[in-house]
């Protein structure tokens, strides 16, 4: 009988606590993952000729703290649905290299249903899939690199709870629509020649020039690019069924996967970037030479003044300052 009373008391207490949680607006974790897409978002999708079940793509830009959700719309191309503010991301511009470096990853990541986390300690989350095939080819390490809620980050991309709830719901419905995955593209910034030139001295520049093709392909076609890895670099546009050796030589089909328009753009941008870098280097070298010449002039003027006063003047003199003329004594010409 005593055991019965204990069980009954526990049951009653549990129901009371559940009622208090509901009153306080606290949701069980399982309920978070099943939240419906807000009506405002449904209206936005309809206006784009899209739907919750349509294919999806996500882009992240570190420098501007932006996360974009794209959905396939009328005509088959992808349309921007919404841009969310990223609360926080960890590290600096550049890819993640090793466990513990507190860097948020950059590159191309394929998100599947198995990477969704409805029971995250950070409200809701999906795993980026780092390290991917490219990362592993370079021996890069790390785990549990997420896009999640709670607005705090240690190597992840953190959103507000409201934002991740909406993004999670859009992804969930994409999978329910029969889509096996969606592409997550992570860039340091928008991959323009101007932005790359501003960061020309960054050691990540070769990597950024590689992933720029993925950016350009989407900008030109509004279709998520397929990707693979060979020669330890990303390659784009190959059939989805391709499975290259990430460290082996790239097949000839890699080049043929580039359209004439894309090839022309890539070559033009490469030439423009090289010209910008060469110009910046020339200007820096000219400034160094001018500084050295100014220093030599200052030392020469210092020696001249020292000679007038019958001694040496320590240091240098600003060559832009006119040296004083010694005062004449009475009777001097």
Average pLDDT level: 86
N- to C-terminal distance: 129 Å
Number of strand segments = 12
CATH class of the domain at 31-191: Mainly Beta
Bin the helical content. Answer: 25-40%
Q: How is the CATH topology of the domain at 31-191 named?
A: L,D-transpeptidase catalytic domain-like
Q: In percent terms, what proportion of residues is strand? A: 15-25%
Note down, in words, how this protein is organized:
Helix content is 40%, strand content 16%. By secondary structure, it is an alpha+beta fold. It has a domain at 31-191: Beta Barrel (L,D-transpeptidase catalytic domain-like). The strands form three sheets. It has a five-stranded mixed beta sheet, with helices on both faces. The chain is elongated, with a radius of gyration of 31 Å. The relative contact order is 0.10. The model is unreliable at 1-26 and 328-333 (pLDDT under 50).
């Amino acid at each position: 009988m005593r055991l019965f009373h204990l069980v009954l008391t526990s049951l009653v207490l549990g129901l009371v606590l559940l009622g208090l949680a509901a009153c306080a607006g606290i949701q069980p974790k399982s309920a978070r993952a099943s939240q419906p897409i807000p009506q405002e978002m449904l209206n936005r999708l309809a206006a784009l000729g899209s739907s919750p079940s349509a294919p999806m793509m996500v882009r992240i830009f570190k420098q501007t703290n932006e996360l974009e959700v794209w959905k396939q719309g009328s005509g088959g191309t992808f349309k921007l649905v919404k841009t969310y503010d990223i609360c926080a991301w960890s590290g600096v511009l550049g890819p993640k290299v090793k466990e513990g470096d507190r860097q948020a990853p950059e590159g191309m990541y394929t998100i599947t249903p198995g990477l969704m986390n409805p029971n995250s300690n950070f409200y809701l989350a999906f795993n980026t899939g780092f390290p991917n095939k490219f990362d592993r080819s370079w021996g890069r390490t790390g785990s549990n690199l997420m896009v999640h809620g709670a607005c705090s980050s240690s190597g992840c991309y953190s959103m507000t709870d409201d934002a991740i709830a909406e993004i999670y719901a859009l992804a969930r419905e994409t999978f329910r629509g029969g889509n096996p995955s969606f592409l997550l593209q992570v860039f340091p910034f928008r991959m323009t020649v101007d932005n790359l030139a501003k960061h020309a001295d960054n050691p990540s520049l070769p990597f950024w020039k590689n992933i720029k093709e993925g950016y350009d392909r989407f900008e030109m076609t509004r279709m998520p690019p397929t990707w693979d890895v060979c020669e330890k670099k990303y390659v784009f546009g190959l059939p989805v069924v391709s499975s290259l050796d990430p460290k082996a030589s790239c097949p000839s089909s890699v080049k043929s996967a580039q359209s004439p328009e894309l090839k022309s753009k890539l070559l033009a941008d490469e030439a423009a970037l090289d010209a910008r870098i060469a110009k910046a280097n020339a200007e820096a070298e000219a400034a160094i030479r001018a500084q050295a010449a100014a220093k030599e002039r200052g030392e020469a003027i210092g020696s001249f003044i020292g000679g007038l006063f019958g001694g040496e003047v320590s240091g240098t003199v600003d060559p832009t300052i006119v040296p004083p003329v010694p005062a004449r004594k009475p009777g001097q010409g």
